[in-house]
Amino acid sequence: MERIEHRACFGGWQDVYRHASKVLGCTMTFAIYLPPQAAGRSVPVLYWLSGLTCTEQNFITKAGAQRYAAEHGIAIVCPDTSPRGEDVADAEGYDLGKGAGFYLNAIREPWARHYHMHDYVVHELPALVEANFPVTAERAISGHSMGGHGALVCALRNPGRYRSVSAFSPIVAPSQVPWGEKAFSAYLGEDRAAWRQWDACELLREAGEKLPLLVDQGSDDEFLEGQLRPQLLQAAADAAGHPLTLRMQPGYDHSYYFIASFIGEHVAHHAAALQGCAGGQCGTDAAGGCCGGH
Fold first, then answer.
1. Is the pLDDT of residue 209 over 60?
2. 38-97, pLDDT tens digit by residue?
3. Active-site pick, 21, 50, 82, 145
4. Catalytic pick from 15, 80, 199, 221?
5. Among this protein's residues, is 145 annotated catalytic?
6. 254 noted as active-site residue
7. Strand 26-34 relative to strand 2-9: parallel, antiparallel, unpaired?
8. DSSP state letter for 290
9. Which of 118, 125, 173, 260 has its CA 20 to 30 A from that of 153?
10. What is the full DSSP assignment across 155-224?
11. In the annotation, is 119 catalytic?
């Protein structure tokens, strides 16, 4: 593992590392923000998954999350959005291939060789982070758009692994929208039964762990009706009795201006779950309810 960026930020450090991924079969980069508290003790981690076309850079340069992570004493880890390299399969267009890994494990060639972003995000990267940085095994997860899909799916597929989950503008039902149908057909094949395990609305039906979901969605998002359709997540959560706070934010679009406007509340939500339920004293999260942690 090689550190390739190192910058002071709100009393802590914003770093970027390069490493060889066995799961993905290529070299990957990830960003990690270590708050000032990490100089004296191990801190919990919020994993952030970015959306289509992004790398690890978008969130760390545009969201302004480091200020809030420093206030609450949590680290933030941001992986890239797909495998990278000359021998990694790619496609024309922004919504398939490099920059569009969809946080699943591909089973169809040529994608199956490298595209195992779920296992990378859930298993390999946390193991690497926990072995090399002053962090605990207390984890939260969040993301935007394709990354919001990834955050919801990773949490729902892996009960007990995360203390909290949230999302901005997530693709909640990829099996029912063009972005998801294109990606799932390529990565998983045409058998829609195989798609269900990567679709948050489908996973809610049988979720054994009722980890509360916090979702923010802009009312003026240009992808709202065609690709995101948050009402489907609300309906699935209602049917399953799964706790969901869906906040429609008037006037906001799909951009990082939206994320920057509410990221402080999301970091506070995760901090409450990661740190605030010790001894049975549950804190109140940004959505006004139980943090859903311990």
1. yes
2. 999 999 999 999 999 999 999 999 999 999 999 999 999 999 999 999 999 999 999 999
3. 145
4. 221
5. yes
6. yes
7. unpaired
8. B
9. 260
10. HHHSTTS-SEEEEES----GGGSHHHHHHHHHHH-S-GGGGGGG-HHHHHTT-SS---EEEEEETT-TTI
11. no
Which two structure tokens, joined as six digits, stand for 57? 């850079």
The active-site residue out of 118, 144, 242, 254 is 254
DSSP codes joined into one string, 110-154: TGGGT-BHHHIIIIIHHHHHHHHSSEEEEEEEEEBTHHHHHHHHH
Other Cβ atoms within 10 Å of 163 Cβ, number: 25
Using one digit for the tens of pLDDT, what is the confidence trace for 152-203? 999 999 999 999 999 999 999 999 999 999 999 999 999 999 999 999 999 9
Please give the single-letter amino acid code of residue 139: R
Mind giving me the DSSP string for 49-81?
E--TT--SHHHHHHS--HHHHHHHT-EEEEE-S
Q: Give 222-243 pLDDT, tens digit per residue.
A: 999 999 999 999 999 999 999 9
Nearest to 143 by CA among 113, 121, 174: 121
> CA–CA separation, 132 vs 126, rounded Å?
10
User: CA–CA distance from 170 to each of 91, 143, 257, 286, 290 (Å)?
Assistant: 23, 8, 16, 18, 22
Lookup result for tokens 């995101």: 228
> Within 13 Å and on the Cβ side, how many CA atoms surround 64?
10
Residue 33: how many CB atoms within 10 A of its CB?
26
C-alpha pair distances (Å), 157 with each of 110, 204, 207, 234: 25, 10, 8, 18
